[in-house]
Write a structure and sequence with these properties.
The chain has 13 helices and 15 strands. Helix 1 links the parallel strand 1 and strand 2. 41% of the residues lie in helices and 18% in strands. By secondary structure, it is of the alpha/beta class. The relative contact order is 0.14. Helix 5 runs parallel beside helix 6. A seven-stranded parallel beta sheet has the order 3-2-1-4-5-8-12, with helices on both faces. Strands 9, 11, 13 and 15 form a four-stranded mixed beta sheet that branches. It starts with a strand and ends with a helix. It has a single domain, classed as Rossmann fold (3-Layer(aba) Sandwich).
Length: 346
């Protein structure tokens, strides 16, 4: 059987390295496109090379803003998983031009590379729930430990109005709509995944991005934890292996998925408030109380976001298999076993 040729942009990142590992185990031909600028990418790359061998995949150390490099990388690809990007709202506020050039411009480069390859590759784009903005028109209620929707017990569907809030929301939303339109205009089999909070091993979370991993890392290495807002903000969280199952499901069902948008997260069964409820999980795993500081709300933050994942369930036959407690325990154990990687950062 012929191997599929995968191009993974951002392939040395958290999600990318986990997917590359899965693909190598499966015997696929993998090219990693990454400029290795993000914290943790060199460590993930080293882990892949040590685990599977230096020749188990091809590395292109280039920037997603380099249109010609992207075009050349895409020439032979059967499947492109576009994960490379600027990932933090706060960083986008500080430098909106760079955020736009990486997220909007970089995604355009990927799409053009796919279009010009004449190979008609599948293109799967990692978008974000931030494209829905603050959802001020959605009725949100405040409970004792968390916020909740008055009218969306299954979460927010793909039909929710788009409202790009923050430079990050605008740049990712631009890519989101370009990916969708390239299916309509150029008949490319593209798929948009509006992802919620993804967490798991190999995530080098920081305060501005990757909050689940960041709290675990900070708790285990005695770093200061700051909660922005009141800590009752709710997110549906999805373990990384479940996300990769969704990627595989979209590719396997590409005749159905092409041109579609899917909200992909833990759904209403896998939610927790950013601190008030998460604190209980983390303190139980840690075996002690955790002290935190509080600060103002951050721009574009949502009181609550929960994905309605029924479209992906119906069309792709996909559903999360890891509960919040199971996934957090796996992440906690990975951080604990690899604590030396994080202590070095003090």
């Amino acid at each position: 059987m012929r191997k599929s040729k995968y191009l993974i942009t951002g392939g040395a990142g958290f999600i990318g390295s986990n997917f590359v590992s899965r693909l190598i185990k499966r015997g696929e031909a993998v090219t990693v496109f990454d400029n290795l600028s993000r914290k943790g990418t060199e460590r993930n790359l080293s882990w892949l090379q040590k685990t599977y061998g230096i020749h188990s995949f091809r590395l292109i150390q280039k920037d997603i803003r380099d249109a010609e490099a992207v075009r050349l990388a895409a020439q032979e690809a059967d499947i492109i998983i576009h994960l490379a990007g600027q990932v933090a709202v706060t960083t986008s506020v500080i430098d909106p031009r760079e955020d736009f050039e990486i997220n909007a411009g970089g995604t355009f480069n990927v799409l053009e590379g796919a279009r010009l390859s004449n190979n008609r590759p599948v293109v799967l784009y990692a978008s974000t729930n931030k494209v829905y903005g603050g959802m001020e028109t959605v009725d949100v209620r405040e409970g004792d430990t968390s916020y909740y929707y008055a009218d969306f017990p299954q979460g927010i569907p793909e039909t929710q109005n788009l409202d790009f809030h923050s430079p990050y929301g605008c740049s990712k939303g631009t890519g989101d709509q370009y990916v969708r339109d390239y299916a309509r205009i150029y008949d490319l089999p593209t798929v948009v995944f509006r992802q919620s909070c993804i967490y798991g091993p190999r995530q080098f979370g920081i305060e501005d991005q990757g909050w689940v991993a960041w709290f675990v890392i900070a708790a285990l290495t005695d770093k200061n934890i700051t909660i922005f807002g009141d800590g009752k903000q709710v997110r549906d969280v999805l373990f990384v292996e479940d996300l990769l199952d969704a990627y595989d499901a979209a590719i396997e069902n590409i005749d159905t998925a092409a041109g579609q948008v899917y909200n992909v997260g833990g759904g209403p069964e896998n939610t927790m408030s950013i601190w008030v409820e998460f604190q209980k999980y983390l303190e139980e795993l840690l075996g002690k109380k955790i002290e935190v500081a509080q600060d103002d709300w951050r721009p574009g933050d949502q009181f609550i976001y929960v994905s309605d994942i029924r479209k992906a369930q119906k069309e792709l036959g996909w559903a999360p298999t890891h509960s919040v407690s199971d996934g957090l325990e796996k992440l906690f154990n990975w951080v604990k076993e690899n604590s030396y990687l994080f202590i070095e950062d003090n």
